[in-house]
Write a structure and sequence with these properties.
The protein is of the alpha+beta class. Among the domains are: 88 residues, Uridine Diphospho-n-acetylenolpyruvylglucosamine Reductase, domain 2 (2-Layer Sandwich); 118 residues, Uridine Diphospho-n-acetylenolpyruvylglucosamine Reductase, domain 3, CATH 3.30.465; 104 residues, Alpha-Beta Plaits, CATH 3.30.70.3450. The chain contains 15 helices and 18 strands.
């Protein structure tokens, strides 16, 4: 039916000063996240909120007019979670960027538009550290990190976003602003509502402030690099390493990814190896040397073609940076369907083997990188978006990779979120009872279904 001119005028009057944007060219920039979701709709307006009060005003207007609301942070999401919908509004939090550090409580008080790197930088000035470390930490927002329960390279030892969220301010579907949790490290009063909203992808409420736990600054890191003939051998080394320790980083790159990185930004990586494994330890003193030695021994036992270690921070960071730029390197090769499937760590070799088999059967390229230490893989399906046959084969492979993870007792998403790209596969993982429970929670908190419709729960 669409939104009337009178209703839009009402929104502009309630939020003056250029907060509400309706210009077609400006609105276009808010339609997609980084997944380039082809099904993204066209919103009637973008609300660029400057504070929680404006978020409340926008949501109350949307509730009164039954208009869908798609919350948006930096737009760096990879699952279509902030794809716009037709006749809705995009509620952008990009202008809400305040970061405050309480060094005595060791927390950061952060608005949702602040970048992950801004929190890290502010914490570092106080000798503190915010560990959650997505590869996109320089351009992803805290609001998006909370919405998807983002992970990253340090998760194997330090955990994911939810492990660091102590409190949230959330605007509910009727415009009510609730404050959950606080600066307290321990607090079990009432239901665990903070955890309910972390990872809910804007479908239950809109985060306007987060209180994040900080820890003392990370110590010196030593790095191990091992090269293998196959990704399966590298994965077997990961399984062996994780039976005895938790490195602070354990990342994998396959041959296709290594070559894409070398084409994109030459770093001197060996193009001929089947897989590269990067491990780090930040343990104190001699324990660090012992962990590196144990990782090297596990890699040698798994048949590593070459393995070396370094205490040089810059040299180690070069390999980590190669891993971080892999997505950008692969993006220039064609359109991408982005997976982040995960399995229990002992089954990582099986998952990687199945991905190789799926790629061969559908004749598509699926370069794979992985937060290998926690069993979370990123198979990136490369295809030609202008070729219907290539697109069709890529989409079949995309579905089969998720099915393979589920069959191994894994998950369709370890950190990117379900969004709209994976919503159709969620029932296969959760089953009918959990899906019914999920819908009841959604209905209770958003009875009109206006908050990010189509994300997580397909229509």
């Amino acid at each position: 039916m669409g939104v009337s001119v009178a209703a839009l005028d009402e929104l502009r009057a309630a939020l003056p000063g250029g907060v509400v944007v309706t210009d077609t060219h400006a609105v276009e920039k808010y339609r997609h996240d980084w997944s380039r979701d082809p099904s993204a709709g066209t919103p009637v307006a973008v609300v660029r909120a400057e504070d929680a009060g404006q978020v409340q005003t926008a949501v109350r207007w949307a509730a009164a007019h039954r208009v869908p609301v798609v919350p948006r942070g930096a737009g760096s999401g990879l699952s279509g979670g902030s794809s716009a919908v037709d006749d809705g509004i995009v509620l952008s939090l990009e202008r809400m960027t305040a970061v405050g550090i309480d060094p005595l409580c060791q927390v950061a008080v952060v608005e949702p538009g602040a970048f992950n790197q801004d929190v890290k930088a502010a914490a570092a000035k106080e000798g503190l550290w915010y560990p959650p470390d997505p590869s996109s930490f320089e351009i992803c927002s805290i609001g998006g990190n909370v919405a998807t329960n983002a992970g990253g390279l340090c998760c194997v030892k330090y955990g994911v976003t939810t492990d660091y969220v102590l409190g949230l301010d959330v605007v509910l579907a009727d415009g009510t602003l609730v404050t959950l949790g606080g600066k307290r490290i321990k607090d079990v009063a009432g239901l665990s509502l903070v955890k309910l909203f972390v990872g809910s992808e804007g479908t239950l409420g809109i985060v306007t402030r987060a209180i994040l736990r900080l820890v003392p600054a990370q110590g010196p890191r030593s790095t191990m690099v091992a090269m293998f003939d196959t990704v399966t051998a590298a994965a077997e080394a990961v399984v062996a390493i994780r039976t005895t320790m938790r490195p602070c980083l354990l990342e994998l790159m396959d041959r296709a990814t290594i070559n894409a990185v070398e084409d994109f930004r030459p770093m001197g990586l060996d193009r001929t190896v089947g897989a590269l494994l990067i491990g780090q330890s930040d343990a104190p003193g001699e324990v660090r040397s012992g962990e590196i030695a144990a990782m090297r021994a596990a890699c040698d036992a798994a048949g590593a073609a070459e393995c070396f270690a370094t205490d040089d921070v810059d040299e180690g960071e070069m390999f980590v940076q190669a891993r971080r730029v892999s997505f950008h390197a692969l993006e220039v090769r064609g359109a991408l369907l982005l997976e982040d499937v995960g399995v229990p760590i002992p089954l990582l070799p099986d998952l990687l083997a199945r991905i190789v088999e799926i790629a061969a059967r559908h004749e598509v390229e699926i370069p794979t990188v992985a937060h290998a230490g926690d069993g979370n893989t990123h198979p990136l399906i490369v295809y030609d978006a202008d070729d219907a046959d290539s697109t069709g084969r890529a989409r079949l492979a995309f579905a089969e990779v998720m099915a393979a993870a589920i069959a191994l007792g894994g998950t369709i998403t370890g950190e990117h979120g379900v969004g709209r790209a994976k919503a159709v596969a969620l029932p296969d993982q959760l089953g009918p009872d959990v899906m019914a429970l999920t819908r009841r929670i959604k209905s209770a908190l958003d009875p009109q279904g206006i908050l990010n419709p189509g994300a997580i729960l397909s229509s």
